[in-house]
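User: Second chain of the day. Same drill as before.
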Amino acid sequence: MNSSLSYREESARPLTSLAFIAPMLVAYETGIFLFGADALRNGADAWLRTLLLQLGFGQYFLLPLLTCGILLGWHHVSRARWNIHGRHVGRMWIESLVFGAILIGIAQLLGFLFSGSLLRARLAVDNMPATVCGYFGAGIYEEVLFRLLLLPAIAGLLKWFGCSKRTCISWAVVLSSLAFSAAHYQLISSAGDTFEYYSFTFRLLAGFFFALLFLKRGFGIAAGSHAMYDICTLAW
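Assistant: Same format as last time:
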């Protein structure tokens, strides 16, 4: 087995994904405490915590622990080896940065098609560390909600109705991506954005992009690429 194939297989494993996202998860949860009102609490994080609270589970650290538990359970079910190669985790940061940059390029191209000019979307932020921590949370918890939970749930429901595997996966990607895009607007959340065709289309394409990464490269790369894209927008 060549080294490139070995990296692809190892980096897609749930255990390696957990090792990769662990620093981002710790940074986000720590940042929520340290930065207070300056911290960007992710909407998916808030929704998942609200759901747990309604189910009677109000412990603050339950959500990150469940995220870790889901990945560990997935790894156990997959019967993969219980070892981690540090060099692969390091390469995952580079791969995620590359995919984040590719998504920036897609946003620029789409902006050109909609407006006839390249977009300049650099954000002015008062607290850069707090913003970066918030983006780590977006990368993890939006991928947990829309790719790790919703996408397989839709595929499983369609399979229960007798659909073929390809149909299940295709519709799961489409529907979870639509939900991902719609969740960013005031129609779903009072704190959301005002609806725009450009941003909705881009977020839909981003949903497809992250779903394909999740299916082909695993949860870690999907979450890392999402976080790296968000962080790259600070200099875009």
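The chain has one domain: 3-235.

User: Great, on to the next one.
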